[in-house]
């Protein structure tokens, strides 16, 4: 066995004995996100190396049954690696210098992306007030936050439905000037217990796939913007997420 193969097996042994409760994660810290995503990247590298070892082994015949399985596994790992890289960039850009952002234009771009890639049984209703002030933030961070909320809304409507996005200027003498962004769906909704834990890192009700980081990342963006996040939901009646974002006077 080569030294590289020995290192791979050592990595596998390390990760297999790492307890989930030993992982420290702060959803509001870029370091916390970097740490978790970095470990995921390491796991992907271990799995990829293991596949390469098996494919090179003279003891395993890569016949017509195994070849498509290995090809599918490699493609899945490549996609996972791309997701890790994108998440690292998003986490990094969350700390990027703020720039003036036109939220109305930002919503148009996100709607176009979602319509081009999602099932046609998801409809969008978007309204952006013409009097919206310019908001200073990381553009990528804002787009990531909105897209995470849209993905949650989509997943809550397995049979299709309507996602509504309303952006209005806060016109209240008792509150600071700002923008209110409301994203609602008519999906499954959440129980009180699920709603209470919805922003906890890694908490998810999804039966498969990765989950549990979307809302914590949204919450982090809102906190960095010195804004407020409110969740409202009832089983069978959908969910409403409200972001109140202050703007400079």
TrEMBL record:
GO biological process: phosphorelay signal transduction system
Domain Histidine kinase: 35-249
Pfam (any one): HATPase_c
Sorted UniProt keywords: ATP-binding, Kinase, Nucleotide-binding, Transferase, Two-component regulatory system
EC number(s) per entry: 2.7.13.3
Annotated signal sequence range: none
GO molecular function: ATP binding; protein histidine kinase activity
Catalysed reactions, as listed in the record: ATP + protein L-histidine = ADP + protein N-phospho-L-histidine
Name of this chain's protein: histidine kinase
Organism of derivation: Rhizobium leguminosarum
């Amino acid at each position: 066995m080569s030294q590289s193969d020995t290192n791979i097996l050592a990595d596998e042994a390390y990760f297999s004995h790492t307890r989930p409760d030993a992982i420290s994660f702060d959803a509001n810290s870029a370091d916390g996100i970097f740490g978790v995503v970095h470990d995921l990247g390491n796991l992907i590298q271990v799995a990829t190396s293991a596949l390469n070892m098996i494919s090179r082994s003279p003891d395993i015949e890569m016949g017509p049954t195994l070849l498509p399985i290995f090809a599918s596994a490699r493609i899945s790992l490549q996609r996972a690696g791309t997701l890790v890289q994108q998440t690292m960039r998003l986490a990094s850009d969350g700390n990027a210098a703020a720039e003036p952002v036109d939220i109305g234009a930002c919503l148009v771009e996100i709607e176009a992306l979602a319509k081009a890639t999602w099932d046609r049984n998801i409809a969008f209703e978007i309204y952006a007030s013409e009097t919206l002030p310019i908001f200073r933030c990381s553009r990528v961070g804002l787009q990531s936050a909105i897209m995470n909320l849209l993905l949650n809304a989509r997943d809550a409507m397995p049979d299709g439905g309507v996602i509504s996005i309303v952006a209005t200027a806060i016109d209240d003498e008792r509150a600071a000037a700002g923008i209110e962004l409301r994203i609602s769906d008519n999906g499954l909704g959440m129980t009180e217990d699920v709603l209470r834990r919805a922003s906890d890192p890694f908490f998810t009700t999804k039966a498969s796939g990765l989950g549990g980081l979307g809302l914590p990342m949204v919450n982090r963006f809102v906190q960095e913007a010195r804004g407020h996040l409110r969740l409202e939901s009832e089983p069978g009646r959908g969910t409403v997420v409200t972001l109140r974002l202050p703007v400079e006077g």
